[in-house]
Write a structure and sequence with these properties.
The chain is mostly helical. It has helices at residues 5-8, 10-20, 22-49. InterPro entries: Nuo9.5.
C-alpha cells in the first residue's frame, strides 16, 4: 500500500514532485486552478469592473442609404 503516500501526506508528496518533476507539477497545478477561475472571475469582473454583457458582433455590413457615389479623378491615365 505504498501508493497511498498522497492520501497520507499530500503536501510532502507535492513538495517532492515540485523538486523532482517541476514541469509536471506546475502543469497539474495550473490545470487545477483553471476551473476554479472560471467560476470565480466572472462575478469579480461584473462587480468591480462593471463589465456587463457585450454588444453583439454584426453579422452583415450596413449598407449606406441612397445611390452609390462614384469617386472622380482616380482613374488610370490614358
Amino acid at each position: 500500500m505504498s501508493n497511498l503516500r498522497f492520501v497520507n501526506s499530500p503536501l510532502r508528496y507535492l513538495r517532492y514532485h515540485f523538486h523532482a518533476n517541476p514541469a509536471i507539477a506546475w502543469s497539474i497545478s495550473v490545470g487545477l486552478v483553471g476551473p476554479v477561475l472560471m467560476v470565480v472571475v466572472p462575478p469579480i469582473r461584473l462587480r468591480y469592473f462593471n463589465d456587463g454583457p457585450r454588444a453583439r458582433v454584426p453579422s452583415t455590413y450596413p449598407l449606406p442609404p441612397g445611390p452609390r457615389k462614384i469617386p472622380q479623378g482616380y482613374d488610370d491615365p490614358e
